[in-house]
Each structure stands twice: as structure tokens, then as C-alpha cells.
Amino acid sequence: MTKESKIITNLKSVRESTGMT
């Protein structure tokens, strides 16, 4: 997994958490 892929996955998780608001 590249560094960029890791960041994208992290952003995806954050969006799911904050997307509930």
C-alpha cells in the first residue's frame, strides 16, 4: 500500500465519522 493510498483510506474513515452530522 502506497503512502497516498493510506491517506485516502484515512480520509475516507474520517468522512464516514463526520458524515453523520
Explained architecture:
- The mean pLDDT is 87.
- The protein has one helix at residues 3-18.
- It has one helix and no strands.
- The relative contact order is 0.17.
- It comes from Streptococcus pneumoniae.
- Residues 7-21 have a biased composition (Polar residues).
- Residues 1-21 are annotated as: Disordered.
- This is Transcriptional regulator.
Number of strands: 0
Order of helices and strands: H
Cα-atom Rg, whole angstroms? 9 Å
Largest sheet: none
CA-based shape: rod-shaped
Indicate the structural class.
Answer: mainly alpha
Overall pLDDT metric: 87
The helix content, as a percent range, equals over 70%
Q: What fraction of residues sit in β-strands?
A: under 5%
How many H/I helices?
1
Distance between the termini: 30 Å
Low-confidence stretches: none
Quick rundown:
By secondary structure, the chain is an all-alpha fold. 76% of the residues lie in helices and 0% in strands.
Index terms:
21 residues
Write the layout of secondary structure elements.
Layout: H1 3-18
